[in-house]
Design brief:
Layout lengths: L1 H17 E2 L7 E16 L5 E19 L2 E10 L9 E9 L6 E12 L3 E12 L4 E14 L2 E15 L1
Antiparallel strand pairs: 1-3, 2-3, 2-9, 3-4, 4-5, 5-6, 6-7, 7-8, 8-9
């Protein structure tokens, strides 16, 4: 047990010294809702769809940490675009942003999403704007692809949403 403490104690001290709690406008826990449009394609032996588009709602919840002048966080999401070729999706992403002028933050995200037909790499980029003390709006592009059973699926989404930051 002492060897585990010797490993984790310095790691914890390093993380705490690099992390400033709630210093930026975008650090801390948040929840949100979004609306978007999803465009999906599927090709392969069993399925062929080209350019199917659908409007959809979604939800997000996450936590952002200040690390130096960046915000590093984790976000869970669910997109309810049941008419796309991959049906409804849910997943977890790591979000990396850099606040500019206090109330604007461009960010990138990468993680995993999946429900049907499989788990996929999820990626994207967005821009968040703080409009009030606890409220922000965000626009973002996300995408994912999968190869399965001799086929290929692609999902691209463009969303706009609102976040409540605690």
């Amino acid at each position: 047990m002492p060897s585990i403490r010797k490993f984790f104690a310095p790691l914890l001290v390093s993380l705490l010294s690099a992390t400033t709690i709630h210093a930026s406008e975008f650090a801390g826990p948040y929840v949100g809702a979004k609306l978007g449009v999803n465009r999906s394609d599927a090709t392969g032996n069993h399925y062929q769809t080209s350019g199917q588009a659908t409007f959809f709602p979604g939800i997000v919840a996450g936590y952002g940490f200040d690390v130096d002048r960046f915000v590093l966080g984790v976000e869970g999401f669910a997109d309810f675009h049941s008419r796309s070729t991959t049906k409804n999706d849910a997943g977890v992403d790591v979000r990396f942003g850099m606040p500019l002028d206090g109330n604007v933050m461009p960010y990138a995200r990468i993680g995993a999403t999946g429900s049907w037909p499989d788990t996929r790499l999820h990626y994207g980029a967005g821009l968040e704007y703080k409009i009030r003390q606890h409220w922000s709006v965000a626009v973002e592009y996300t995408g994912d692809t999968s190869h399965y059973d001799g086929g290929h699926r692609r999902n691209d989404s463009l969303t706009a949403g609102v976040h409540y930051i605690f």
